[in-house]
Amino acid sequence: NTLQGTIVEDRADGIVFRGKDGIEGRFPPSEIRERILRNPPSAVHANRVRSHFDPMNPADREAIARWCLEEGIDLTAEAIGHLEAWVALEPAAGAAELLLPLYDRRVTPTMEESDLQLATTLRIVEQGGGGAEVSLHVARLFTELGDLRAAIRILEPLAGQSAEDPMVRDGQDLLVESIARIGDREAARALAERLLDDPARESAAELLRLSAAWHLEDLAAGRDGAAEAFDESLARLLEAEPEDGRAHLWEGSAALLRGDLPAARASLKRAFELGEFGAEALATIALALAREGETQRALDTLASVRTAEGVEALVHTIESYIQEEQGDPAFASALL
Questions:
Q1: pLDDT (tens digit, 9 = 90+) per residue, 273-302?
Q2: Which of 18, 84, 179, 257 is at 20 to 30 A from 119, Cα to Cα?
Q3: C-alpha closest to that of 151 among 128, 130, 180, 129
């Protein structure tokens, strides 16, 4: 049957409906197949908020938020507001479950909305709700804001958890990366090595990339045991991600350091085929050209990346090598 009239009261346990004849009746959700609203959802929402709605009642906040998210209603901004208020009223795992996906889909929030979003997600973490997913969400917000130490504090509890949970794994990866970015390479490396030993970790590509990059730095610095450590981490990375362009780039760099020009050329070519066109790749290719005696091609390649960020030291090293090969060691020393 289709009834026409007015919804007098709308709550989680059903509605009170007044028909055109003035008779009121209560209908539980199980008896309501569909609602056909004559007024736009925004008007219905405003009416619900004005009548029979207690803003300090978590159950009312939950009910109206879920209604805002129903198909055909789609009042996302209003739902976010009610869910944020629900979190402020009480620890609410259900609110976190609904709210975080809405935050993720939000496009260009205002400064005020961003501040409230951060405060709400921090409150969820403090309440112990949401688990690894919430911790990862908050940590990413902090990294976007440039506060890496705050992100580390949020993520540290995940270091001792099993990486079987993909959210825990991603949080651990971000933790290692954040520790490295604040300059504590030794702590980041130690944590990465420990996490890589977790048998529950199905995907270790991010940690293996960091590990391979660090071992390559050790190899370049001539540290004891660096060659074996690099070969092992690179082999694990290529086993996990055989089409990883950066892995082949680092493989080529290591071959250059060892003086194996044919192997370096093959690895760098593969890296280029896999889309490694960045400044680091071009600088490494320039070094390979210089090692092969193609000085002008090497300098031409370097010219395109000389002002790029993150490769300044590599560019200077290559220029120094070229000048020394051309018989100007004094200029090379000045560059270094």
A1: 888 878 888 888 888 888 888 888 888 888
A2: 179
A3: 180
**Contact criterion met (CB below 8 Å) for 85 and 62:** no
In angstroms, rounded to a whole number, what is the distance separating the alpha carbons of residues 210 and 192?
8
pLDDT in tens, 29-55: 888 877 766 678 888 899 888 887 899
Nearest to 155 by CA among 133, 173, 171, 169: 171
Tokens for 66, please give them: 């879920």
**Tokens standing for residue 263:** 């192997």
Beta strand 24-27 with 5-11 is: unpaired
Question: Residue 20, by phi and psi: left (phi above 0), alpha (psi -120 to 50) or beta?
Answer: alpha
Q: What is the pLDDT of residues 59-116, one digit of tens each?
A: 999 999 999 998 878 899 999 999 999 999 988 778 888 888 898 888 888 989 988 9
Q: Torsion angle of alpha carbons 153, 188, 310, 253, nearest 10°?
A: -160
Q: Residue 22 pLDDT > 60, yes or no?
A: yes
Residue 75 token pair: 């009042």
Distance in angstroms between the alpha carbons of the first and the last residue of the chain: 86
Q: According to the model, what pLDDT value does residue 130 have?
A: 65
Two tokens, residue 243: 């089409």
Of these ranges, 117-131, 160-174, 312-326, the one predicted with the greatest mean pLDDT is: 160-174
Beta bridge partners of 7: 17
